[in-house]
Amino acid sequence: MKKIIIMPMILASFLVFSQEKILTKSSTITFEASVPSFQPVLGTNTNVTFVLNPATGEIASLALIKGFQFEMPLMEEHFNENYMETDKYPKAIFRGKIEKFDANNLTEDYKDYLIKGNLELHGKSRDINASAKITRTGSRITIISDFAVNASDFGIPIPSLIKYKLDDRVKVQIIAVLK
To answer: Which residue ranges in the chain fall short of pLDDT 50?
Structure first.
């Protein structure tokens, strides 16, 4: 009788363990919308939540827009109030999946992957394909992903007066170290 009860419990524990998600609240997102010969437009947020389900390759990320910091306080103020309208749209959310991901095949050498998902930003939602480099060192998984988005695709207003100083094509990088 004990074997009949213990066996399903052991199997259930394996299922629960395989669905375990790992997360960090200290991922970094950096974006750049600079145009050559003008002041760099570079923002960094080091308090980004990033979740990975190692069993399925599903990922999710949440960044509070007010968490982005700039070299110049005035640039940060304009970013939050005039462009991103953070009182109305306080966060960016990405949900996706790492294609052909198998956590058991990760090594200390970076491997290239494709991430497909959906980015919600400034009240709009767009499908995103991003390249990623992923490695495992001990129990730590590191994901570095680069992609670009168009500010205009998300309805982010750039006044014509300064349009020549900002690139509509915004380069984005996320670095997540999960334990």
So the answer is: 1-18
Burial category of 74 from C-beta neighbours within 10 Å (exposed 0-12, middle 13-18, buried 19 and up):
exposed
pLDDT value at position 159? Answer: 82
- The pLDDT score that the predictor gives to residue 37 is 77
Taking the C-alpha atoms of residue 77 and residue 84, their distance in angstroms, rounded to an integer, is: 10
Three-state SS at 119: strand
What does the alpha-carbon distance between residue 114 and residue 176 come to, in Å, rounded to a whole number?
15
92, 120 Cβ separation under 8 angstroms: yes
pTM over 0.85, yes/no: yes
Quick one: 94 exposed, middle or buried, by C-beta within 10 A (0-12, 13-18, 19+)? buried
For residues 84 and 70, is the Cβ–Cβ distance under 8 A? no
Asked whether the CA dihedral 153, 155, 159, 162 is positive or negative, the reply is negative
Residue 19 confidence (pLDDT): 61
